[in-house]
User: Which sequence fits this backbone?
């Protein structure tokens, strides 16, 4: 993943962190794992499957999925 894409993802995460709770970002990583981050200001967690990440975010109102 190039630096431009990483910067855009970081920007989306920052925007989500400023918003109300219930917003999350799920990102497919280069190694095939999935990173999931809940707003506001929660640490990113890494999951080996997409389903595990979705389960972690199941209580979020809005999930942004980034699959590059």
Assistant:
């Amino acid at each position: 993943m190039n630096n431009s894409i990483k910067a855009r993802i970081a920007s989306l995460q920052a925007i989500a962190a400023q918003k109300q709770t219930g917003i999350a970002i799920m990102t497919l990583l280069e190694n095939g794992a999935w990173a999931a981050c809940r707003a506001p200001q929660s640490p990113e967690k890494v999951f080996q499957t997409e389903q595990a990440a979705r389960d972690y975010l199941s209580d979020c109102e809005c999930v942004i999925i980034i699959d590059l």
